[in-house]
Structures are given as structure tokens and as C-alpha cells.
Amino acid sequence: MTLSTRFAPLCVLGLAAAVSGCSRPRIEAPVADAAAAITIREGLTTVAAGAGGGAGEAQVSGTGWGGLKGRFVFAGDPGQPKPLVVDKDTEVCGKMSKLFDQSLRVDTSSKGLADVVVFVRKSSRVKNPVPTTPVVFDQRNCEFLTPVLVARVGQPIDVRNSDTVGHNTNIDGTSFNQLIPAGQGTTYTAAGEMGMPRPATCNIHPWMKAYMIFRKDGYVAVSSADGSFEIPDLPAGEPLEFQVWHARSTGSGGGLVLEQPELKWNPKGRFTLTLQADEIKDLGVLDVPASAIGT
Amino acid sequence: MRQSSPSHRFVAAIIAIVTVAAVGCGKTPPASFRLNMVQATKATVPESGLEKPWASWSRERQQQVATILEAMFGTPDEPVALPETGLDLAKLQLAAGPVRSDIVGRKNGLYREHCAHCHGISGDGMGPTAAFLNPYPRDYRQGKFKFKSTWRDAKPTHDDLVRLLHEGVIGTSMPSFALLPPAQVDALAEYVKYLSMRGEAEIALFTYAEQELGADEALPTTKEFLVDEVLTPIAEKWQGAADARIPVAAIPAGVDFNLPGNDLANRDSVARGKALFLGDGGCVKCHGVTALGDGQANDYDDWNKAIVAVSAEVAVGLLSSKEAATGGMSSDALADHRARSAWLDSFAHVLEGDALRPRTIPPRNLRIGHYRGGRRPIDLYRRLYTGINGAPMPGVGPSGPGGKGSVADEEIWHLVNYIRSLPYEMDGELGADRPMVAKDRF
Question: Running DSSP on this structure, what letter comes out for residue B338?
Fold first, then answer.
């Protein structure tokens, strides 16, 4: 074998490697349609004829007020809550009572599923003004005492720390990530509507997690320990789209998807209802299948 | 002269063929923005009742977003600035495009010359060198910036960006661009804002598609939607940055920043700062008693946290999808199952190529004297006041105008003073009364 024949495969290999490189495998991303982009751009740069009739606003079409209630019941086996790994400030955290994962709270006797959030996505009328009394968001034993906090946009939130160690409260999607020294508190005014509940965490104690949702109209309910919820004072006579959410739900974006064909409960965890004046619509017992809740 | 042997000619031919095959003989296509594939895949989660196979449905939806973005922002070679953005197109043109000189000999293509190799053509923080850097280069697309003079969730001002480019970010791979003419730095800052607005609009479009659109609906392309609903809220935050500066308290008596942090004249102030560091400031929780950054240290910043969360979701989903028994499924359920499996597979591939391996963000070691956002007392004051946007670091000042912080505004200056003294402090708390030496700091 001559030197050059031995050299040939090496050469080819080396070249192939040099040319193809060692870059990471990237899937081909869809690219823009340049002609269509130019057409769209023309529409964006010309002055719109006549103000568009705000597609985002619900039309006022009724009078009176109604309500919605129901009760979520977990149809599966919730299992035993997992103990949390508490490795910071152990002289305080988990001393009052042992800390467990509270992301799936099911009542042992009634099987009621707590912490399910139900809210209206769009409404035209609001009965009550934004309350000036603050909602309290407290922490003790290195645990948030409110698993899901609801506030109206513009409503003050009294963020407290009843522990003897410092915490920071970091509300996702807002400007609030403030240190709250032991035994102190501060006030944050809920600013900006949230499309879905957002986590509130403490970065010092990473196991601490709660959720918050701020809505302009305040049409939000969180299911209580027995799984029941009620939203009063809803505008009657207009189609209202309700979003249902749970922290552990497997649905898209956290939407809780139930088998409720008569409500046309969709894969985003939503259904639409029109209430009559003075009607309190009772959805009865809503079974949450085990498959709707993830790990 | 010796004639070349057949094997020599063979080698030459093979090399020529391989080179041509690999390099091709076409022109290089113009640079294009890469779609935010993590967001794109997240937003095209399959819904039941899809008529087309999932892959073609999601590709169509993703392509529509790419087209809308090109309509609103143009291409890397030809940027477009709609008047609502408030961006200066002349500056963008100086920064955009391939590196070249224009007719008056002025340098163009500044972003690709100075920035793109780390921050990427699309500003995704995933240029060719990104994976080798620690920390990773900033991904502008979320519109979150750390080092600024404004409230935590506000945008940086133009001057904040210019200053950062001028100074660089010490302790990271971000160099100083102080040697560039001011006009070029200015153009680059404008281009960063442009890429950031584009990235935020992209996320807004995908979020809208995920939240509001039914399986067979397309995104609206009207001015009302794209400009009024999507672009304007983003642009207004950028334009309002100059009015969102945090207030700066007067420096109290007993604080003299002209003297070293460990000077006797500053002793009382430093002692107060230390009490705050260990007490109400809460600094000790993460930075540790010794300020070596050895407290709580297994957290992620917002950019990495998002990837950690989505990777976990995909891994769990893939596992349960493989374990699922498909035997007893109805045809509809089977179609849903297949679409979901295709989505999960595709997501796993996207995460391999379009996300960097997540890294934790350790709290800073304050004994080194490297401050990423700047070493001036005012820089430290701002970091303490609002915390660091995108990082776990909370603020000790109020979260907005009229709020109440855990440390009073003027007291923050004492904390600043204490932090400035840390690199020089005697190492009493570590058990030996001697000055810190570098090798003991790690």
C-alpha cells in the first residue's frame, strides 16, 4: 500500500468533518413567506379606514346579574402527599408541622378538589368596584398560607412574613420580587391582568410555591377544601367564556379538561354559558378524572 | 519530473468531489431570523379534532407567525421599523446586514461584526460561540434586561444599554465596546431594542395563537391586531423607560465613597450595612454569612428556568406516552395520542438544537470585587433597590412608586458601603484573622 492510498481515506474524512462541522442538530425552522409579508406590511403602514370595532371587547347585551357554582370532585386516587425536601433554615422551616407537597389537595371524606381556579375570560359589565381592602398573602413555617391568591387589578396585596426568617416573594410576570424580613410586610398593588394564574415563589426556600391571578373584573373563584366554588354577580344575558385551571392539570396551558359534553368543555379547559338575570347556575358535581391531573 | 500515480489523481478527485458536494456551488442565501422554536412548539400543542396531521398543521401556524414578523420587522438584511416602535431606521440600517462599507465609507453591519457570534442573528443568545460561554449570552427575545436604572419590570433606558456596551460586563464574556465611535454604539443599542421588540412580539403572537385560536383558525393580520394589540403595548414600555427610573436617595452623612470601603471614616456606616446584610436586607440567605456566595445556590434565572420546566414536562410526557396502552383506544383517541406523541418528539428535538443546557445561577461572591452591572456606588444601589430582573435576586427597595421596601432608601447606601468593603475586609469570620487571599475564596 502506498502512502497516498493510506492518506486518501484520512483526507476525505478530515474534509467531511471540517465541512459538516460539529454543530448541534437543529431542526429546520419554518421561514417567512416574503410576498405575503409585503402584503401584510402594506396593511400595517396605511392609515386604517374607520376605527376597528375593538374585537377584544365583549358587547354589552344584557341586564341583571347571575351566578355560577359547582363542586370539583377528584375521581382518582390522590395518593399520599409527598414530604418536601427542606434543606434551608431547618431550625424554622417545617418545625411547626412537617411540610408536604400541597399541589394536589383532595379532601379525604368528600373527595373535593381544592385550588381549582374558575374565571371569566371576557365580560362587558362589572357590578362591584375594585375593593380597597387588601388581600393578605402570608407565609409561616416556610409555607405560603394562600395556595391560590386572587386579586382585582388595582387592589392592594398585603404581603406578610409571619416567620422568624426572611423570605423573598417573587411574583412571576410582575415587577414584584421583594425581600420581606422576618415578622414584617409590604404592600403590592396588583398591576396588569394575568391570562392564567402565575407562580409566586420564594427563591431562598425553593420548595415554596403558590399561585396568583389578577383580573380586572374579579370574576374569579378558587375551589375550597371541599371542592366547591361560586362566582356571584356575573353579568346576565351575554355569553361568558369560563376558563378552568389547576396547577397540576395536563391540559394545554394549565387548563383543566373535563368530560362535560353538554357544556362543550374544550381542550383548553373552557366552556361558555349565558346566564339569565337572578339565575344561580349550579353545575353540580364536576368529576375530575385522574388523567386530567399530571405528576 | 515524476508522473502522478493513479492513486494521487484519485485522491485529488475525491477531495474535489467532496468539497463541491459539501460546499455547493450556489450563492449563500441571505441571513434570516430563526423562529423562536421553543415558543413555537410550545404554542402548537395538538388539539383534538385536528383534520391535518399535526406536523403540517403546526408548520403552517408557525410559518404564519414567521410571515407576520417579517411584515412587522423585516429581515436581518433589511430591517423595518413601524412608526409605533419609535425606533430610528437609519440607526438600525447601520447595525443590520452583512459587514460592509457604504458609499461614504461608513462601516455597516455592526451587529454581525460585533455581536451576532454570541447573541445570534435573531438575538436569541444562541450564536455559534454561545454554548462555550458561562454565563450564556443574553437572549433578548424575552425583553428582560438585568442592569438598568429603572424599576424591576421596566425596560432599560437607551443610556443604560449604551453604558453597558461601553463598559462591558465584568466577570462574563461580554467585552467593552468603548473603542467604537459613539455613533456605532448608539446604533447597536438601537438594534438590541429592535431585536428585543421583535422577540417579544413573537412570543405575544404565539401566546395569542395558543390561548385564543381554535384548531383551524389563522392569526388576524389587521392593523388593529398586529399594531394596536401586539406591538404598541411592547413599544410603549420601551418608550416609557426614561420615565421609569427609580428614585435615588441622598447619600447620608458618614458615607464617603471617595474613601476606600474599609476606611475608618466609613466604619459606622459599614457596620450598619453589615447589620442590614445579616438582618433585614436578607442578603445572607443567598450570599452567605461570609458573602462568598455560598448560601442558597441551586436556583435558575428566568431564561434557564423556562427551559428546565419545559424539558421536565416533555420528559414526563414522552415517558407516559410510551407507556400508554393504545390497544383499546377509539380512533379519535388514537389520533389524539399520535398527534401528542409527534408533538412531544418534535419538542425533544427542538430542545436539543434550540436551547442551551440549563445552568444554575450561583449568587455572586462579593469578596472578589467584580460587579457585573458596574462598580460605581450608584450601580450597586440600583442592584439592591430593585433586585436583578430575570435573576432570583430580590430587591430591598419598594417594588414600585409609593411602595415600602424592606430597607429604607437612604439605608441602602450603608449596604452599598458594606459591600464595597467586603473585598478588603479582614477574614475574622472565617476563623483566622488574616486578609483574604484569592485561593481561599473558592
Answer: H
| Predicted pLDDT of residue A66 | 95
| Yes or no, beta carbons of B350 and A27 under 8 Å apart | yes
Give the total number of structural domains in chain B: 2
Flag whether B10 is in a domain: no
Q: Which residue has the cell 385551571?
A: A245
User: Is B80 close to A41, i.e. CB distance below 8 A?
Assistant: yes
Give backbone dihedrals phi and psi of A215, rounded to 5 degrees, phi first: -130, 150
pTM: 0.88
Which residues in chain A touch residue B225, judged by CB atoms under 8 angstroms apart? 55
* Partner residue opposite B67 with nearest CB, options A36, A179, A295: A36
Domain residue limits at B191:
37-244
Task: List the domains of chain A with CATH numbers.
Answer: 65-292 (2.60.40.420)
Flag if A29 and B8 touch (Cβ within 8 Å): no
CB-based contact A37 B128, cutoff 8 Å: no
* Closest-CA residue of chain A to B279: A181
| Nearest one of B162, B140, B176, B160 to B91, comparing CA atoms | B162
What is the rounded distance in angstroms from the CA atom of residue A9 to the CA atom of residue A17?
12
Average of pLDDT values for A59-82?
89
Query: Looking at the partner chain, which of B47, B70, B395 has a beta carbon nearest the beta carbon of A178?
Result: B395
Contact between A184 and A161 under an 8 Å Cβ cutoff? The reply is yes
Domain-embedded: residue B218: yes
Q: Are residues B289 and B381 in the same domain?
A: yes
Interface predicted TM-score of the whole assembly (ipTM), two decimals: 0.84
